[in-house]
Amino acid sequence: MQTRTTPLRRNRLANLLLEASPAAVVVTDSQNHIVAMNRLAEESFGYQEHELVGRSIKKVFPECGTGRSPSSDDASHHECILSQLRDPDPTEPLFFQACRKDGQTFSTKVTVHPLATDSCLVNVIDLTQRIIHDQASNHEKQIQGERLAAVLQMVSGLAHESRNALQRAQSCLDLLQLDLVDQSEMMTLTEQIRGALTDIQQNYEEVKDYAAPIVLKRQAVDLPELCRRIYDELTQSLGDDAPRLSLRCTTACQNVRLDAGRIGDVLRHVLENAIHASPNQSEIEFHCDYPDAPTIEIRVRDHGEGLSREVEQRMFEPFFTTKQQGTGLGLAVCRRIIEAHEGTIEAANAPEGGTVVRIRIPVGDPTG
């Protein structure tokens, strides 16, 4: 097996994001030469990445498909996709005939995303839809692929040097504190600086966690007990002002095969948001049962002001946040975790007021 050692592949976060994409992705340089492709693209074209790196994009897109037609004075159909790479419009999908290694062709919808890196301008080419595939499923993949391009742009600009820079800053701060040990005010300031650096490092780790593949380790989980423990941790500092937790769960919910750590992360984010939205001394309802066995349903409802239309539509999108701090990846990670369990997570305004988050996961026979 060939080692993936292109410059883009040496950026660890960009590499993870490329492979985490739900769409087949090909990356080209400003000269339209292929510099990287993920495994889904390898499967689509029948090539391994090392066979195409350095080759023209025309190797896999020899001519145009059914999308925007080249003008009458074009010398070759080859120029169609290349012209899009020279002046890409990521808002307009294109349809092309792609060519596999074995000579077979297939129709695919392509979206081109220009991406500025530290060293050059590249294009991220999304093959988000093969025409014969289910339309609705691939529309969602297209949306996720476009979000991935935004993540790649941020990572390419920041991730390469951020860890080294943070380590240098921490080392300098350690040396500075040795000279300020008798100056309490200065020591307080240095601790505040250290806290800010820690926040930056935490944001970096959140992006890495979002990009990393999710491998589940299922075990028996007592959901009511897990919820109670997380709630107690989150409300420990609130005292009498903390909202009350109302648990209503069937006995079968005390023995559910899930990834305890991952589901705990999801409940922590959901409960933290519910606590933040709840008035003092109000109630948070946690219900879990099997309304459609073998699918378990978890519902968390607060009695806050509810969601605006924009928040309701976008709250699970990567980098969307209404808070002044944080990356906005928390709920996006939650959705990835639930989808890894082959489940769904959604949020909506409750008819009686407040917000209800509903999680549904197929887990097998509740009696077994």
From TrEMBL:
- Which species is the source of this protein? Stieleria bergensis
What residues does the Histidine kinase domain cover?
Answer: 157-365
Give the catalysed reaction(s), semicolon-separated.
Answer: ATP + protein L-histidine = ADP + protein N-phospho-L-histidine
* Protein name (record): histidine kinase
Under InterPro entries, the record lists: HATPase_C_sf, HATPase_dom, His_kinase_dom, PAS, PAS-like_dom_sf, PAS_fold, Sig_transdc_His_kin-like_C
What molecular function does GO assign, one term?
Answer: protein histidine kinase activity
PANTHER family, per the entry: PEROXIDE STRESS-ACTIVATED HISTIDINE KINASE MAK3, SENSOR HISTIDINE KINASE
Tell me yes or no: is Nucleotide-binding among this UniProt entry's keywords: yes
Q: Which domain of life is it from?
A: Bacteria
Q: Does the keyword Nucleotide-binding apply?
A: yes
| Keywords, comma-separated and alphabetical | ATP-binding, Kinase, Nucleotide-binding, Phosphoprotein, Transferase, Two-component regulatory system
One example of a Gene Ontology biological process annotation:
regulation of DNA-templated transcription
Name the PROSITE patterns on file: HIS_KIN, PAS
Q: Which residues form the PAS domain?
A: 10-63
- Enzyme Commission number: 2.7.13.3
Q: Name one Pfam family in it.
A: PAS
